[in-house]
Specification:
Elements: H1 2-22, H2 27-30, E1 33-36, E2 39-42, H3 46-57, H4 64-76, E3 84-86, H5 88-96, E4 101-104, E5 107-112, E6 115-121, H6 126-130, E7 137-141, E8 144-145, H7 153-160, E9 167-173, E10 181-186, E11 188-191, E12 195-201, E13 204-209, H8 216-229, E14 234-238, H9 247-255, E15 263-269, E16 272-278, E17 290-294, H10 301-311, E18 316-319, E19 327-333, E20 339-348, H11 364-368, H12 370-377, E21 394-395, E22 401-402, E23 412-413, H13 423-430, H14 433-449, H15 455-465, H16 468-477, H17 484-507, H18 509-518, H19 521-531
Parallel strand pairs: 13-14, 14-17, 17-18, 18-23
Antiparallel strand pairs: 1-2, 3-20, 4-11, 5-6, 6-7, 7-8, 7-9, 9-10, 12-13, 15-16, 15-20, 19-20, 21-22
Helix pairs in contact: 1-3, 1-4, 8-9, 9-10, 14-17, 15-17, 17-18
């Protein structure tokens, strides 16, 4: 069947490419109509006709769903980088990424040595209720072996997630227990959080937001309110590595900090009338000092929020130039359960800057390499290396000049600090040996480490434990030859990273981020800015 399908798919894809290229020049054909039963209908396109012919009279039986999905994906590749066709089998997973919950067993996991390790068990979730513990290793699912080379993240998620109320039987290997333990877990609703962490740095409230999902605004407002109750006088909103999500959440978050009538964002497209979102003046944090952190991977809704704060002179933007995704997608469902996310407009900041960086239709590979090109130009390290595609001058509400050309340019640029990096350190990080060692160290010392209930005391214990020689030996066994001068130079980075990973394994993100951010250069610059009374 594969031998039959391949040439057919190639034929359909080639035909689609031809039709797309001629779509606008052949307008007469595109507007033909037929009359059936006294009513006017648009005539089927050539693509529709080809698919019908393949389905009805082709010499061999074909999997038309597969052919159609392949053809649709190739069709969309000829458009902008963010339009997408989502097959039925993937749609639920894609949509769940921004939902407030999904149905599953309630664990966080990683895969090491072809085995699923439960890194954390969600409090109040189905797994905790039956006695599954952090550190347990998954051996079987419904009496079938679940280890080996074929295990990957997608397969694990598809296996452990499922309809609410369904049951799954897990075989678990637990440290200190020889026999395999079996637990039957009833899947339930698992909350998906957008706010990774909220904590105080002196009298500054720090909130990290990882995406803009359907519950992000409520989580964000709750975090701000709790920090204010703890004495926060100013705030840092961390949107680094936040790839975006729902525009509405970014608008509602921005509204909390802006005055009535302030423009938050506007959008317009060829067949999409201009739509402007403005603040309504009901925000509860309109007067507090604010800093927003962004980096190269802050995109879409993150850029809408940061751009609104910058153009209204409401916050200082600190970090590095953001990604530059400013295209509006509309999701259009199909009867077979698949969907099309089609770009219909562009986003603009209040000053009129288009957030979207330049692209060429159908040139997705070059588009995806743009970040690498920034790196090679030195943009990750020096603000002077930033290349502005748009030479138009834009002005903020107070008359400051800001730059367009894709992404949000920070007010204060903080480049990547590589002074303590060495080839030895880069290798152990790139091969994830730091992460793997942290988990294995936690697993061996879990009972001891669980005595500590806050990150400060746990970090102190880890410093005294002096695990660095043990890690150097571990990395050497993995093939990384020790270099004592490089190890000594990179030791501060190494201890910060692995200690933070171990703390996360015991205390979760609420312990990880305060420790990790304490020595982060961008965070330190933000704290310094706010402490100086800006």
């Amino acid at each position: 069947m594969k031998k039959i399908l391949f040439p057919v798919i190639v034929f359909v894809v080639a035909l689609l490419g031809f039709l797309i290229g001629n779509a606008y020049s052949n307008r007469v054909n595109a507007q033909r109509f037929v009359i059936r039963d006294g009513q006017l209908f648009a005539a089927p396109s050539k693509v529709d006709q080809v698919l019908q012919l393949l389905d009805q009279i082709y010499v061999d039986s074909l999997d038309m769903d597969s052919i159609t999905d392949e053809a649709m994906q190739q069709f969309i590749l000829r458009l902008d980088p963010h339009s997408a066709y989502i097959p039925r089998k993937d749609l639920e997973m894609v949509n769940s990424e921004l939902s407030s919950s999904f149905s599953g067993i309630g664990v966080q996991f990683n895969i090491q040595n072809d085995t699923v390790n439960f890194v954390a068990v969600i409090s109040g979730g189905p797994s905790e209720g039956v006695g599954i513990l952090a550190g347990d290793k998954l051996i079987s699912v419904d009496d079938s072996v679940f280890v080996g080379k074929r295990i990957n993240n997608e397969r694990v998620m598809n296996t452990l997630r499922g309809e609410k109320g369904t049951k799954v039987r897990l075989g678990i290997r637990r440290a200190g227990t020889e026999e395999i333990l079996y637990f039957t877990v009833t899947r339930g609703d698992i909350p998906v959080h957008s706010v990774d962490a909220k904590f105080m740095i002196g009298d500054i409230g720090f909130v990290r937001v990882n995406k803009f999902g359907d519950n992000t605004y409520n989580e964000f407002l709750s975090a701000l309110t709790q920090l204010r109750a703890q004495g926060a006088k100013s705030y840092i909103v961390d949107l680094r590595e936040n790839s975006g999500g729902y525009m509405e959440m970014a608008i509602r978050m921005a509204n909390e900090f802006l005055e009535s009538g302030d423009v938050i964002v506007y959008s317009e497209g060829r067949a999409y009338a201009r739509s402007t979102a403005r603040a309504n003046g009901t925000g509860r944090f309109r007067q507090v000092p604010l800093v927003v952190l962004i980096d190269d991977f802050s995109a879409s809704a993150s850029e809408i929020f940061a751009g609104a704060m910058q153009d209204n002179d409401r916050a200082q933007i600190i970090g590095r130039r953001s990604f530059g995704k400013g295209l509006v997608q509309q999701q259009i469902p199909f009867d077979d359960g698949s969907a099309l996310r089609l770009t219909v407009a562009r986003y603009y900041t209040p000053s009129g800057r288009c957030i979207q960086k330049p692209y060429q239709l159908g040139e997705q590979e070059n588009y995806e390499l743009e970040l690498l090109q920034r790196y090679e130009r030195g943009e990750f390290f020096s603000g002077d290396s930033i290349h502005y595609q748009d030479t138009t001058v834009y002005y903020t509400k107070a008359g400051r000049i800001v730059h367009g050309g894709g992404g949000i340019m920070p007010d204060i640029f903080v480049g990547r600090d590589t002074t303590l990096n060495t080839p030895w350190f880069n290798k152990v990080v790139n091969y994830a040996y730091t992460y793997q060692f942290a988990y294995q160290y936690t697993d061996r010392h879990r009972k001891e480490l669980q005595q500590y209930k806050d990150w400060q005391s746990l970090e102190k214990h880890l410093i005294q434990a002096n695990w660095v020689p043990e890690f150097v030996s571990y990395a050497e066994q993995k093939g990384v030859t020790p270099d004592q001068s490089q190890i000594a130079k990179s030791r501060p980075l190494l201890t910060r990273l692995i200690n933070a990973y171990i703390v996360r394994n015991i205390l979760g993100d609420e312990g990880f981020f305060p420790l990790f951010e304490r020595d982060d250069e961008i965070t330190k610059r933000a704290v310094e800015y706010l402490q100086l009374g800006h």
